Amino acid sequence: MRETSSTPPEHVEIARPHRELLDQVLDKWSLQVLNELCERPSRFNELRRAIPTVTQKSLTATLRRLERNGIVERTVTSTRPVAVEYDITPLGKTLREPIDALLDWAHENMADIERARSRFDEEG
């Protein structure tokens, strides 16, 4: 049995399943969908209006990936016409803190990142 501890391991292996999950959860459409769903459950067309640059195909694929990973749940209502609503799951809600930490880091370091990009581009 694996020992658990509150301190992080010294070495974290980033295996294929980890990379695949991070690619699926941290892409630009997923982050925007999660941001919307953290506020409230939404129907597909509400998400399309909230994220006007996403195509129907990309939004569908994004929602399916997030649902497959247990981050988003899809509920079909028995109303007429039938409606589909998407909501963030309890597992999905646990992403808020680490994503906010990454966004805070990016915000705090953006000036240094932009300078590094400029240096790199000038040398290239």
TrEMBL record:
Q: Which InterPro entries match?
A: HTH_HxlR, WH-like_DNA-bd_sf, WH_DNA-bd_sf
Superkingdom of origin: Bacteria
GO MF assignments: DNA binding
Entry-linked Pfam families: HxlR
- Alphabetical list of PROSITE patterns matching this protein: HTH_HXLR
Q: Which UniProt keywords apply?
A: DNA-binding, Transcription, Transcription regulation
Gene3D superfamilies xref list: Winged helix-like DNA-binding domain superfamily/Winged helix DNA-binding domain
> Residues in domain HTH hxlR-type?
16-114
The coiled-coil regions, if any, are none
What is the name attached to this protein's record?
Transcriptional regulator
What organism is recorded for this protein?
Nocardiopsis alba
User: What lineage does the source organism belong to?
Assistant: Bacteria, Bacillati, Actinomycetota, Actinomycetes, Streptosporangiales
